[in-house]
């Protein structure tokens, strides 16, 4: 049956054949395909032949369409845009992006939830990721931030525990993306350092109206280093021009049911109708001496730097004006990493940041199938790039010519790229000395003061929302001792908050305020250990 005009049985309607300028459907090897409706068979009703290379080419590729989802921040939505420098900072940082006022740098941003899987709903009560990739002329700079300026934990070694506790419980596989479960509240109530973050998570910040109405924060203290090698600390802020907006919890529940894609649809639609969302980049810049005057440690990611003490200086704006051409190629395959910094910016010794610098690259090696994911267009720098790294899975930009090492004796033509002390990255020469030890600095010890400051800075309605959120979430916790332990922490934050939550949960009398030290396993009465097993 080689006549293309003749029907070939089921699916054999041939009104979609290539004619004129339409491109011809091919296999992955480029071979034109005559019939994409029927597999090759031994007789019209016989078995499909293993020989059918066209069928195998197609199904083989389909079988491998899925890659593993991100271990956290699996559900996200990205868009392209640009960053415009509105203030030059040549006296503060040698970063090329801050040298020329008015210059635009291409950017890609991915917003996300943290705990839910890829198919979860947009309006879960959760932190939102706010990851920005800036394709600068001197390399890619990623600010991998969140919409909340503090974090749950102080040391990256606790990250796997935090995420295990926040994601679905391992025996039952639910709840998928809710803070409302025993494991989560068990863990955080045993980690007093999470108290400040919990106040933010129970606030309206954790149920934003859309990605367009959120702030973003780099969270950690970073360094800015100028041409003379002088360094200052910096915290990065994204301030939405649209303002801050959240939904009510009842609205969040309804929206999740009616349209779990609410946030991604909102961003897509806004950009498509030309209503481009915009953020200002702000910096809190302070030097080492100033940092020492704070009553907390600037290396502790559970603390903010109060804006009254260090005002936010606006230095640029970020505009998102283009949706992706392909969700998988761009939003799924983009690889942000805290270690992607450029000359003029440097790390601080924040132990959470130091751990993140290892984790992102490590996980992406697996998620994106090998060490060459920087060759993908979404991850590749948009500035010249020359190095001697080669081979591995999917190598797409191996060095050309003879030299793949240096030093070498080959001339300018054949010798390949050379190092450049003038242009190159230099680490800030911070002095470090100390005894090797597993330790948490005593300057990280105050877990309640900023949580209290956050609570009392809220309006009456916002405070009521926090009380309602704690009561709702803890009412889903089945183990009485965990609820009580949380109330004992709230007593260290604000008496009225603790009393209100306790009343709604029917906890009477109030427990003793928590010991600031970490509670132990023995704090859980035997009866509650049993009820964990039962529920
Ligand atoms: C992913 C932010 C802490 C490990 C992400 C993403 C964001 C983010 C925004 C999503 C990136 C994207 O859209 O592709 C943060 C912030 C943190 C924090 C603001 C604390 C201040 C940590 C820590 C670790 C970690 C402590 C581990 C030690 C990861 C991993 C991914 C991720 C493994 C998945 C990356 C991928 O598959 O591409 N984080 N994170 N994060 N984060 Fe974090």
Give a short summary of the structure.
Helices cover 27% and strands 14% of the residues.
Topology, please?
Layout: H1 53-63, E1 76-85, E2 104-113, E3 128-136, E4 139-146, H2 159-166, H3 182-189, H4 195-201, E5 216-217, E6 222-225, E7 231-240, H5 249-258, H6 262-272, E8 278-286, H7 288-293, E9 313-322, H8 327-332, E10 345-346, H9 351-367, H10 449-456, H11 460-475, H12 480-493, H13 495-505, H14 526-534
Antiparallel strand pairs: 1-2, 1-9, 2-3, 3-4, 5-7, 6-7, 6-10, 7-8, 8-9
The structure holds protoporphyrin IX containing FE (HEM).
Residues 70-73, 76, 110, 112, 129, 131, 144-146, 151, 156, 159, 219, 301, 334-336, 352, 355-356, 359-360, 363-364, 367 line the site of protoporphyrin IX containing FE.
Structure notes:
- This protein has 14 helices and ten strands.
- With 535 residues, the chain is an alpha+beta fold.
- Strands 1, 2, 3, 4, 5, 6, 7, 8, 9 and 10 form a ten-stranded antiparallel β-sheet that branches.
- The longest helix has 17 residues, at 351-367.
- It has helices at residues 53-63, 159-166, 182-189, 195-201, 249-258, 262-272, 288-293, 327-332, 351-367, 449-456, 460-475, 480-493, 495-505, 526-534; strands spanning 76-85, 104-113, 128-136, 139-146, 216-217, 222-225, 231-240, 278-286, 313-322, 345-346.
- It binds protoporphyrin IX containing FE (HEM).
- Protoporphyrin IX containing FE is lined by residues 70-73, 76, 110, 112, 129, 131, 144-146, 151, 156, 159, 219, 301, 334-336, 352, 355-356, 359-360, 363-364, 367.
